[in-house]
Write a sequence for this structure.
C-alpha cells in the first residue's frame, strides 16, 4: 500500500492505543475549554486525526493481517490486548469517519440546539461516546468491552438528554434508554461472569480456545451465551428489545441522532458477531440453535413488524428509528443464516446502513434547522424550498429502499442471494416484502416533497431556504458514498467477505 | 422552604442550634481527609487505593457542606476547581500512558519510568492512582453540588 | 443434613458457614422488603442497607478492597445521592397493581430459571481447582510478587495489569461528572430551558405539564406561557 | 455430601439478582427503578466475588516474609511454608509445600471497576430523574406517559 508510506511507523504500531488515548484525553481537555468555537475546533481536529488513524490501521491490517497490541506491555491473557483484524477494522473506520462527518455537521446544528455554555461539555461527551464505541470495537478482552460499552452508554444517555432543549420527551427517552441500556450491560456482565467461571480467562481468543477444548462447554457456557446475546440484543435494538430506540433517536439533538443511528447499534452488532462466531462457534449445537431460531426469528419478525410501525409514524424521526430496527433485522437474518456469504451480506448491510441512515438523519436535521420540520405532513414542497437537502434525503432514501446502483441494493441483493443459496427461499420473499414496505414509508415523503406545493405562511409561499454549507457537505458526502458503494461495490464487498471468512473460515 | 445556598449559620439571636455538631465536625473533617490520604498511599500495602480515597476525601467535603451549608463549602472548594480537577485526573492517568509511549514502551507500560522495571511500575501505579483520586474526588463533589444546589419543589410538609 | 456434612468438611469452619448463610439471608430479607416498600425514603435507606450488608459479606469472602469500595460507594455516596435526588422529587411511590406486574414476573422467572439451570454445572463454592481460580486470576499472585513487588495484588492488577480498564473506569466517572454538569449544572440554574421550535417560544414552565400534577406556576407565568 | 452448601451461594445470589431485576421491571417510579437497578448490579457483584472465593484462602494481600519466618506471633499457621518469589521478592506465595492460599484477585479487580460504573450510571439516572421531575412535575412513569400523550395531541393540533 503506497498510502501507508506517508504515515510514521509509530502510528502503524501504536495506532490502536493512540486511537483510544487521543479522544479520551482530548475529551477531558475539551470539557474545560472556555470558548465554544475552540471546543468545536479541538473536536474537529481530534476526529480528523482519528479518521486518519483508523484508515492507517485498516490499511496496515490489510497488509500484515491480524495485529495484537498489548496494553501496558502485558501479554494476553494477563494483560488487556487490543486486536485489529479483518472483522473490526472496517467498523473502526466507520465509527471514526462518522464522528468526523457528524462534527462538521454539528457546528451549525449545535447553534440551534445546544446552549452556548454547554457546547464545550457537549463536544466532550461526544468525544467520549466516540472513544467508547471505538474502545469496545478494538479490544480483545471481554470485560474491557463492558467498560467501554459503559463509557459510550453513559455519554450517550447524556447526549440524548441534551435534546430536552428542543423537546422535553428527550428526558424520558434518555431515562428509558438508561434503564434498558444498564440492564443490557448488566446481562452482558453476567454472561462474562459465567464465561469466566467456565474458562478462567477474560481474553476473547483464549476463551475461544478453551471453549473449543471443552467442546462448547457445560450448561454454564450455554447460559453465558444466552445472557450475552440478550445483553447485546438490548444494545443493538434486536426486535422486542428495541423499545428504547425510537425515543432516543427521535428526541436527541440531530447530530447525536445521526451519529447514534450510524454507529451505536453497529458496534453492538459487531460484538454480537465477535461473540457468536469468534468466542463461541456455530458448530456448538446451542449456538446454532440460537442463530437458527432466535436471531433469524426475531430478525424476520422485527423486519416486518418494525417496517409496518414505520409506515404508521407521523414523526419522521420516529419513522426512521423504526426503520433502523427493521434494518437490524436484515443484519440479524444474515448472521443467523450463518454461511460465509450471508454473514458477509449482513456485515455489508451493517456498513451500508450506517452510511444510509446517517445521511437520512442529517438531511432531516437540516430540515428541522431551517423549518422546524419533524412530521411527515410538513414535507410538502420541500423539493422546492430545500432542493439540495431534499436531494440528499432522496438519494439516501432510495438507497434505504434498495434501488439499483445504491448501497442498499448491493447489500440486500447479496443477502437475498446468500439466503437463496442456503435454501432459505422464504427469507428472500421477506426481504422483498420489507423493501416494498420501505418503499411505502420513504416514498410517501418523496411524493409529498416533490409533488406537494410549498405551504403558505401569511398568504405568501415559503421561499427557498437552503441549509448551510456545513450541513450540506456531510449529508451529500454520505449520499454520494451510498451511490459510490452501489456502483463500485468491490471494496466494501471484499472487506465484508474477508470479515466473514475470518469468522467462518473460507468457503 | 429554605434555600440551601443561603441557609444562615446561626439564627437572628446568634444562637446556633447545631453548635455541638459543628465543633465535632470541625475536629472530624481534617481527620477524614487525612484518612483519605492514608488510604491513598497505603493502597499498595493494604486495602485501598485511589478510588476509595477519592470517595472518602469527597465525603469530607460533603460533610462540611452538610454541616456548614453549601455556600460555605463552595467557598472552601470552589466549583470552578471541580471542572479543572475532573480533567486533571484524566490527564494524569492518560498522560502517564502517553509518557510511556514517548519513552518507547506501550501505552500504560510503566516499566520505563524508573531505573528498573519494578521501580517504574511503582512510579506508574503512584501516578495513575493520583489521577484516579483527583477525578473521583472532584466528580463526587461535583455531583453532590449539582444535586444540593437545586431548589426542591416539594416542601417539608409532604413528608 | 448436608449443612452438617459441610460443617464437618475440614476446609469449611462452622463460623464461616453461619456468617455466610446469615448474611445472605439478611440480603434476601432486605431485597424482598425493597420490593414491597413504597416510601421512597425507605427504599433509599434499604438500598443503602443492602450495599452495607453486601460489603460485610465481601469481607467474609476475602474481597477486602471490594468491601471497602462497596461500603464507601454503595452505602455512602450512592445513598447520599439518592437522598438528595429524592428530596428534589417525591416522597412516595404509587403502588402498581399486581396484574401489571405479571409480565415483569414472567421475565424474571425465565431469566432466573435459565441461571438456575446452570447452577448444577457450576464449580463448588470455594473450589481451589475451579477454572476461574486455577488459571489467569491466580497467576497474578506470583506475577505481582515478581514483577510489581507490592503486597496488594488487587492494586497491582487494577493499576498495572488491567490499567487500561482502570483508565476506562476513570473516564466513566469523568463522563458521569460531565453528564451531571450538563444536566443539572453546578449552581442549580441548568434546569431552566427555553427553545424556539416552529418559531414558537416555549420554556420549561410553559410546556404542557401532566394533567394530574398540581400546577405550581404563578398566574404571571401562565400568561407568559400561553402568550 | 456438601452439595447443597457448595451451590447454596449461587442459588441465593441468583434469587437476589432476579429480585433486583423484578424491582426495575415491576415498579413505575423512577427512583424505585434506580434503586432496583442498584440492587441488581450489586447482586452481580456478589456472583463475581463468590466465584473468586477460595476456601481456606485469605485476602489477596501478600504476606511479607520478614525473615524471622515461622516463629512470628500470629503466623503460626504458616509454619514451614514460606516460599519466596523467584525474582527475589520476599513474599509468602502459595504453591507446593505451602499452606497459604489467597483468594482470586481478578474478579475483585473487575468488580471494583463495575462498582464505579454502577455509581456513574446511578448518578446520571438520578440527574435525569430530577430534570424529569422539574419538567413533568412527577416521577411516576404512568403520569409521564399520559403527559407525553397529551403533548403529542397538542403538538399535532397546530
Amino acid at each position: 500500500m503506497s498510502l501507508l508510506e506517508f504515515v510514521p511507523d509509530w502510528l502503524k504500531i501504536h495506532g490502536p492505543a493512540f486511537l483510544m488515548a487521543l479522544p479520551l484525553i482530548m475529551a477531558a481537555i475539551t470539557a474545560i475549554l472556555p470558548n465554544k468555537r475552540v471546543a468545536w475546533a479541538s473536536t474537529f481536529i481530534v476526529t480528523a486525526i482519528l479518521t486518519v488513524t483508523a484508515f492507517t490501521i485498516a490499511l496496515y491490517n490489510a497488509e500484515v493481517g491480524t495485529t495484537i497490541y498489548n496494553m501496558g506491555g502485558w501479554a494476553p491473557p494477563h494483560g488487556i490486548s487490543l486486536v485489529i483484524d479483518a472483522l473490526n477494522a472496517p467498523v473502526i473506520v466507520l465509527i471514526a469517519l462518522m464522528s468526523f462527518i457528524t462534527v462538521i455537521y454539528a457546528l451549525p446544528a449545535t447553534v440551534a440546539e445546544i446552549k452556548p455554555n454547554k457546547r464545550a461539555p457537549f463536544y466532550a461527551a461526544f468525544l467520549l461516546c466516540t472513544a467508547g464505541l471505538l474502545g469496545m470495537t478494538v479490544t480483545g478482552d471481554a470485560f474491557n468491552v463492558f467498560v467501554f460499552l459503559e463509557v459510550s452508554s453513559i455519554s450517550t444517555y447524556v447526549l440524548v438528554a441534551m435534546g430536552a432543549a428542543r423537546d422535553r420527551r428527550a428526558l424520558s427517552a434518555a431515562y428509558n434508554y438508561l434503564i434498558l441500556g444498564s440492564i443490557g450491560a448488566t446481562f452482558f456482565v453476567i454472561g462474562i461472569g459465567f464465561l469466566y467461571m467456565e474458562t478462567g480467562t477474560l481474553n476473547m481468543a483464549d476463551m475461544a480456545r478453551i471453549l473449543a477444548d471443552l467442546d462448547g462447554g457445560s450448561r454454564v457456557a450455554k447460559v453465558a451465551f444466552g445472557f450475552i446475546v440478550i445483553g447485546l440484543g438490548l444494545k443493538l435494538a434486536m426486535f422486542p428489545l428495541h423499545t428504547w430506540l425510537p425515543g432516543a433517536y427521535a428526541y436527541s439533538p440531530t447530530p447525536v441522532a445521526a451519529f447514534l443511528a450510524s454507529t451505536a447499534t453497529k458496534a453492538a452488532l459487531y460484538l454480537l458477531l465477535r461473540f457468536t462466531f469468534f468466542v463461541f462457534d456455530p458448530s456448538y449445537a446451542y449456538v446454532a440453535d440460537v442463530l437458527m431460531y432466535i436471531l433469524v426469528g426475531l430478525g424476520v419478525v422485527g423486519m416486518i413488524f418494525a417496517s409496518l410501525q414505520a409506515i404508521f409514524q407521523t414523526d419522521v424521526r420516529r419513522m426512521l428509528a423504526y426503520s433502523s430496527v427493521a434494518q437490524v433485522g436484515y443484519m440479524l437474518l444474515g448472521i443467523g443464516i450463518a454461511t460465509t456469504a450471508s454473514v458477509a451480506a449482513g456485515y455489508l448491510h451493517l456498513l451500508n446502513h450506517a452510511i444510509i441512515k446517517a445521511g437520512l438523519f442529517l438531511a432531516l436535521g437540516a430540515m428541522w434547522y431551517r423549518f422546524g420540520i419533524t412530521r411527515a405532513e410538513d414535507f410538502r414542497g420541500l423539493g422546492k424550498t430545500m432542493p439540495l437537502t431534499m436531494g440528499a434525503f432522496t438519494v439516501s432514501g432510495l438507497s434505504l429502499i434498495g434501488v439499483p446502483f445504491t448501497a442498499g441494493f448491493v447489500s440486500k441483493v447479496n443477502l437475498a442471494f446468500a439466503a437463496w443459496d442456503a435454501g432459505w427461499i422464504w427469507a428472500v420473499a421477506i426481504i422483498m416484502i420489507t423493501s416494498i414496505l420501505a418503499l411505502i414509508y420513504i416514498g410517501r415523503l418523496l411524493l409529498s416533497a416533490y409533488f406537494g406545493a410549498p405551504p403558505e405562511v401569511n398568504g405568501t409561499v415559503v421561499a427557498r431556504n437552503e441549509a448551510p454549507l456545513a450541513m450540506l457537505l456531510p449529508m451529500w458526502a454520505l449520499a454520494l458514498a451510498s451511490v459510490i458503494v452501489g456502483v463500485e461495490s468491490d471494496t466494501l464487498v471484499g472487506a465484508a467477505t474477508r470479515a466473514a471468512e475470518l469468522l467462518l473460515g473460507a468457503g | 422552604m429554605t434555600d440551601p445556598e443561603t441557609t444562615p449559620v446561626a439564627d437572628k439571636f446568634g444562637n446556633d442550634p447545631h453548635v455541638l455538631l459543628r465543633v465535632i465536625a470541625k475536629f472530624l473533617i481534617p481527620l477524614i481527609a487525612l484518612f483519605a490520604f492514608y488510604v491513598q498511599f497505603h493502597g499498595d500495602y493494604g486495602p485501598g487505593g485511589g478510588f476509595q480515597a477519592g470517595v472518602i476525601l469527597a465525603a469530607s467535603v460533603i460533610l462540611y457542606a452538610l454541616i456548614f451549608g453549601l455556600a460555605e463549602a463552595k467557598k472552601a472548594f470552589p466549583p470552578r476547581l471541580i471542572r479543572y480537577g475532573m480533567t486533571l485526573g484524566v490527564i494524569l492517568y492518560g498522560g502517564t500512558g502517553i509518557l510511556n509511549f514517548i519513552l518507547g514502551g506501550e501505552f500504560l507500560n510503566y516499566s520505563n519510568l524508573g531505573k528498573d522495571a519494578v521501580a517504574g511500575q511503582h512510579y506508574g501505579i503512584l501516578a495513575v492512582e493520583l489521577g484516579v483520586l483527583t477525578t473521583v474526588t472532584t466528580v463526587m463533589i461535583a455531583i453532590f453540588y449539582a444535586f444540593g444546589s437545586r431548589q426542591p419543589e416539594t416542601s417539608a410538609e409532604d413528608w | 443434613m448436608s449443612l452438617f456434612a459441610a460443617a464437618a468438611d475440614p476446609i469449611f469452619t462452622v463460623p464461616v458457614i453461619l456468617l455466610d448463610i446469615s448474611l445472605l439471608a439478611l440480603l434476601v430479607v432486605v431485597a424482598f422488603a425493597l420490593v414491597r416498600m413504597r416510601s421512597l425514603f425507605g427504599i433509599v435507606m434499604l438500598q443503602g442497607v443492602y450495599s452495607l450488608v453486601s460489603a460485610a459479606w465481601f469481607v467474609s469472602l476475602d474481597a477486602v478492597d471490594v468491601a471497602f469500595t462497596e461500603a464507601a460507594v454503595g452505602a455512602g455516596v450512592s445513598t447520599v445521592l439518592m437522598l438528595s435526588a429524592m428530596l428534589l422529587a417525591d416522597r412516595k411511590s404509587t403502588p402498581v397493581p399486581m396484574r401489571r406486574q405479571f409480565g415483569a414476573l414472567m421475565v424474571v422467572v425465565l431469566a432466573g430459571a435459565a441461571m438456575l439451570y446452570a447452577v448444577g454445572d457450576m464449580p463448588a463454592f470455594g473450589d481451589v481447582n475451579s477454572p476461574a481460580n486455577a488459571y489467569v486470576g491466580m497467576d497474578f499472585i506470583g506475577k505481582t510478587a515478581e514483577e510489581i513487588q507490592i503486597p496488594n495484588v488487587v492494586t497491582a492488577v487494577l493499576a498495572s495489569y488491567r490499567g487500561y480498564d482502570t483508565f476506562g473506569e476513570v473516564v466513566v466517572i469523568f463522563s458521569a461528572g460531565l453528564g451531571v454538569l450538563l444536566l443539572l449544572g453546578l449552581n442549580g440554574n441548568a434546569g431552566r430551558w427555553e427553545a424556539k421550535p416552529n418559531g414558537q417560544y416555549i420554556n420549561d414552565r410553559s410546556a404542557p405539564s401532566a394533567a394530574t400534577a398540581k400546577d405550581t406556576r404563578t398566574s404571571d407565568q401562565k400568561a407568559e406561557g400561553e402568550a | 455430601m456438601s452439595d447443597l452448601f457448595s451451590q447454596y451461594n449461587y442459588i441465593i445470589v441468583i434469587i437476589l439478582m432476579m429480585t433486583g431485576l423484578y424491582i426495575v421491571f415491576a415498579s413505575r417510579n423512577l427512583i424505585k427503578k434506580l434503586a432496583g437497578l442498584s440492587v441488581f448490579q450489586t447482586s452481580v457483584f456478589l456472583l463475581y466475588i463468590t466465584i473468586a472465593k477460595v476456601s481456606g484462602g485469605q485476602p489477596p494481600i501478600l504476606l511479607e516474609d520478614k525473615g524471622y519466618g515461622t516463629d512470628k506471633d500470629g503466623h503460626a499457621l504458616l509454619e514451614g511454608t514460606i516460599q519466596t518469589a523467584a525474582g527475589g521478592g520476599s513474599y509468602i506465595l502459595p504453591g507446593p509445600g505451602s499452606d497459604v492460599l489467597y483468594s482470586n484477585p481478578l474478579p475483585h479487580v473487575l468488580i471494583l471497576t463495575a462498582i464505579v460504573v454502577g455509581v456513574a450510571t446511578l448518578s446520571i439516572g438520578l440527574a435525569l430523574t430530577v430534570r424529569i421531575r422539574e419538567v413533568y412535575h412527577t416521577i411516576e412513569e404512568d403520569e409521564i406517559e399520559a403527559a407525553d400523550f397529551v403533548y403529542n395531541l397538542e403538538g399535532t393540533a397546530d
Remarks:
- Residues 37 and 159 of chain A are 19 Å apart (CA to CA).
